[in-house]
Design goal:
The chain is of the alpha/beta class. It has a single domain, classed as Spore Coat Polysaccharide Biosynthesis Protein SpsA, Chain A, CATH 3.90.550.10. The strands form two sheets. Strands 1, 2, 3, 4, 6, 7, 8, 9, 10, 11 and 12 form an eleven-stranded mixed β-sheet that branches. Strands 5-13 form a two-stranded antiparallel ribbon. The protein starts with a strand and ends in a 9-residue tail after the last helix. The relative contact order is 0.20. About 2% of the residues have low confidence.
Length: 300
């Protein structure tokens, strides 16, 4: 059994200022997604599923999907604000779709095997994909045994502004007990700080593990997601900016005891383009990795 890699690529990236999923950052014009697909191939993933929006489908297929022909099977699904369970309609004034777990639900008709979920605009590192693929292969035929790849907070910061990260609460046995979304995390005067709900600054724990939206699930996760999405819509469906996040469903399943989620620790260092100013550093980092032989000059 080969797991599937599900890539969330429907967002615009408002802070970055454009379609960063399609930005050429590697020496031969590669996107960050290209490096994720390359690392996933080496780790033993057998299929890629992208979730995108209809409005940039043609550009996406030409610039991204076509280059993988002959390398790995690819499917494309679409996140749409109107893709809701029967009986629900969005508020006519709502503009955006419903968040990351709504995007995950778009894959339920094409994914029948254990699968990973990642962001399109984050670099996770080859070791992270290997760790994740090994776990997913062990879950074939099982239900409710999920995982996430946990990154040390020090390996996920941007030099150009505060970042949002999911702070992981982990049991002594290495299982996730909760994820708390934290914002504005950065280093000031040698200390890690975060922006608290009242706008003030508070310390952020050094050495802690955070979620970078790198998850591993078995297909039963879709059933739980449909159930929880209906509950979410009953409570928040008329709101203009409410979002249905992956950690929302994960926390519900952990608290109900319906699933466990193993935190797989990775030594990899994250980088990406959260801010426009991150671009030059990301280009330089890919150049360094190529020069050191981690990747070839051209991936595909």
């Amino acid at each position: 059994m080969k797991p599937t890699l599900f890539i969330l690529a429907a967002g615009m990236g408002s802070r970055y200022g454009g379609l960063k999923q399609l930005d050429s950052l590697g020496p031969s014009g590669e996107t960050i997604m290209d490096y994720s697909v390359y690392d996933a191939l080496r780790a033993g993933f057998g299929k890629i599923v992208f979730v995108i929006r209809h409005d940039f489908e043609d550009e996406f297929r030409k610039k991204v999907v076509e280059k993988y022909a002959g390398h790995i099977d690819v499917e494309v699904v679409f996140q749409d604000i109107n893709n809701l369970p029967e009986g629900f309609k969005p508020n006519p004034e709502r503009v955006k779709p419903w968040g990351t777990n709504h995007a995950v639900l778009m894959g339920k008709d094409v994914i029948k095997e254990p699968f990973a979920v990642i962001n399109a605009d984050d670099y996770y590192g080859a070791e992270s994909f290997k760790i994740l693929a090994d776990f997913l292969r062990s879950t074939e035929g099982k239900k409710g045994e999920y995982c996430m790849v946990g990154f040390r907070i020090e390996n996920t910061l941007s030099e150009n502004g505060g970042v949002s990260r999911g702070l992981c609460e982990v049991s002594e046995e290495g299982f996730l007990t909760g994820v708390n979304e934290c914002h504005g995390i950065c280093r000031k005067n040698g200390k890690l700080v975060q922006t608290l709900a009242d706008g003030s600054e508070g310390e952020f724990p050094e050495g802690s593990y955070v979620s970078m939206n790198m998850w591993g699930f078995t297909p039963d996760y879709f059933d739980y997601s449909v159930r929880d999405f209906i509950s979410f819509l009953n409570e928040h469906g008329d709101e203009l900016k409410s979002e249905f996040y992956i950690p929302t469903v994960v926390n519900n399943l952990i608290q109900s005891g319906e699933a466990t989620l193993k935190v797989l620790q990775t030594p990899s260092k994250w980088f990406g383009v959260t801010f426009a100013a991150d671009r030059d550093a990301t280009v330089a980092e890919f150049r360094r990795l190529v020069d050191e032989g981690v990747y070839p000059e051209r991936l595909f």
